[in-house]
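Readers of this paper often ask what the protein records in our data store actually look like. Such a record has a labelled line for the sequence and another for the backbone structure tokens. Nothing more is needed to write down the fold, since each code stands for a local backbone conformation. The remainder of this section carries one protein's record, kept here as part of the documentation.
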Amino acid sequence: MRMTKGRLPMLECAVLTVLPAWWAMAVQQRARGQVPLVVLIKGLAFALFQLAVMVGLIRLNAWWADLIFLFLLLATGNMVLEAVALRYPDSAPGAWWLRQKAAAARRRG
């Protein structure tokens, strides 16, 4: 099965998520006190696994695979926002995300 021209932007998005996913996972592992080498290995393993899943979903070329692909993109964005808030809580995006989480917690009760 060949990659069609319409699927190439999805492949580019999948490849572009590798570094942010790696960084976000590394920040979360570092916050848990993991050894730096373990942090790098776990982050890379997670990012490459996610890339493999995303490429597999692209190759399936089905509407439900596109939905799962979109969910993975959104989940990666969420991971990056969590990592920014954890690593840089005083930055504008980090502080905004922490306010959003606090507001959601208040709404839940």
Summary: The CA atoms of residues 26 and 39 lie 5 Å apart. The mean pLDDT is 92. The chain has five helices and no strands.
